[in-house]
Amino acid sequence: MSNKEVKAALKSARDAIRNKEYKEALKHCKAVLKQEKNNYNAWVFIGLAAAELEQPDQAKGAYKKAIELEPNQLLAWQGLANLYEKPNQTDIKGDLADVYQKLLELYKSGDKQKWYDVCNKLVELYHQEKRYLEVAETWQKLIQMKQEEGAEKAELHQLWKKMIQLLKDSTRNEDNKTEQLLLSAFEHAVNSADIIPGEDHQNLYKDFIQCLSKFPHEAARLKKACNDMMALYPTTSYPLEVLCLHFVHAGALSGEALHCCSRLLEMDASSGLGIIVFGIKCLQEKKYKEAVKSLTEGLQKTNQCPEAWHYLGEAQVKIHKHRNAVLSCNQALEALGNLEGPNLPWKNLVLQLKAETLIKIGDADAAEEAIKALDQIVDASSDPVVSAIRGQAYLNKGLMDQASKISQELLLSHPDLAESHALEGYIHYSLKNYEQAEKSFLNAVERKPDTAEYHQYLGLTYWFMSDETKKDKGKALTQFLKAAKLDSYLGSAFFYLGNYYRDIAGDKSRARGCYRKAFELDETDEESGTAAVDLSVELGDMDTALSILNDVTEKARPGTAKWAWLHRGLYYLRNGQPSQAVADLQAALRADPKDSNCWETLGEAYLNRGSYSTALKSFRRANELNPGLVYSIYRAAALEQILGKYENAIATYQQILKKSENYVPALKG
Prior knowledge:
Serine Threonine Protein Phosphatase 5, Tetratricopeptide repeat; mainly alpha
């Protein structure tokens, strides 16, 4: 076949393809290849015809042979791209990407529009495969090409926005190069907008700041973007909210953070984040009740700041609201989510706070829950303070051997740690080894002199060690005073101060003040409340006694605060107000229906009121609960006599005389 015949055969093949006669085209091409086996056009036409005849492998082979012959010719690459783009071609996306890359190279110096078309296809392909770095780099090349062509600012702005859209899901990949390209796209987009300021530009800035806030290491860039946005949009609170959130998450409130908080609250007094930052400021300034109030209010207004739950728990611990603090810790853990990523340090802090708080609650169930919390702390075994907390949890649970083992290990490995000596002290104290406990707590106090709990336990050690140390002003009293000074919310310190002033110093007035303070700090502390009321009565100050009792009974839920109802009922009984006494004693019995003394007192109140039948039932009930209450039996007999039930009365009197022959009231009756 001559050169002229080869050309004629290729023309016939091209015409056959145009007429969709693909098999005919193949015949012509094969004839050419018999004569010229390296004929580029023949291989390209075979690829095209085979593709149309749905023979993809033959088509692919033909195109690759053509490429091998002429690697910088367009036709074969275009044909291969068309083949790979067909819907029935699967698992060839990597190959297609390579083809597009070659086409970009070939189109670059020629047909710009085709270059843009292929570039768009390549970006779409990378995007489908979530290859975000390749997406970013390829799209940036497209923008660069447009810039070289002198594209308008508006067109470039739209291209930067498109790049942002393409990369919006890439922030989860933790790829620094992609991240930098995305942030660069944002910076170009916000700087190339037509209308500044404007609504679209403002929303774009918000998206930029939101994106920056996902990267903890971009703090400086975040602050700059927020300040730039505030300069353009001085009435919008969004950048200030983001900055407040950033400062809270960073874990330290600087003057800059407080300035942001002030500006935010000036702009929007109901801003949840602003109120939260103010609450954290109160916590740092040891204004714990204000901190609890502000943090609670802020958390009701926003769910954007899970760390605030930790700060709330911390503030609640400071005022000894331990059960509330545990609930706050649980809220924090739920809000922080999985134990991974940037929230991990916060999770560890919350779990440690939860464990410490549960130990302060003191019972075995709380100790078990504390151990579970400690087990979730990442790298807990390397933290001696966490180990000391675990030792306390074992001690509260009654696992003395495990607690002692941890104590011994800590004293060997961390002899300068206050917590090591404190744990040893708690163990000795629980075993009533007071002399050893004293040494341990003195060591703990030496290392951490500002910890109220250590002074409190040292004071308790002296209180129970001996009468001499209990009475020595330089021992128990001094330590309780230090504890109360260091922690003005530590109710138990004030309770023991009350004990000292009442039992040792004989100063009833000062003792009452201490008991009252202890009770104000912890209204569940019945012992302090009772002591404050009893001393008020002894001091002849019934107004104070009644004030305390009225406060408690007003707040009490049904079936609670028995001691207060009983005390007030006795007061009314003594002061000739039997109806009020009846009401209060009934409330006391709702809290403890099996208190025989309370039933006896209720009988007395009914008797004084003239309700003889009901009084008789009350005395009978007291006797059922405690057959040894002779007075109740006598009162029952006397009431039967008053009610004319003489035979019953005689039998009851005889019942008393069997137990007490010389019980005069019964003989008289």
